[in-house]
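Below is the data:
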Amino acid sequence: MLLVIDFLTRFWADLMGRTDGPMTFRFFLQPTMALITALIDGTRDARAGKAPYAARMMRSSPREHLVLWREGVTATARILLLGVVMDAIYQVRVYGGFPHPLEAFVLAVALGFIPYLILRGPFTRLAARWYRHHPTAHKDSAS
């Protein structure tokens, strides 16, 4: 239990240090990339007539659940990889090495994957509403 508390304390302190140190642009870059990816995938879901991503996740069978998770991770793989690489560069600059790879992964997930999960459903709903009110836009984009 003490190791977990130590990890969380160090992680939180390191995270706060990352907000004003070198490479702070990634706190904007990764969520923006997640937003763009969620917009593209949400629009694609609406065009295909699918339910919002999180709703499908909650209602799916375990087998479908795995397929949906894989779809989300595949969609955000570049964002996650970019996040880990940027944090590795940060750690090399600040610590002289890469001593906390788990922190890099957790931060990449927090800045890339979680915003994607949160935004994809609302974008699907907005795009579905748009397509209902503009049926010719839907037919033109499908061609």
About this structure: The mean pLDDT is 88.
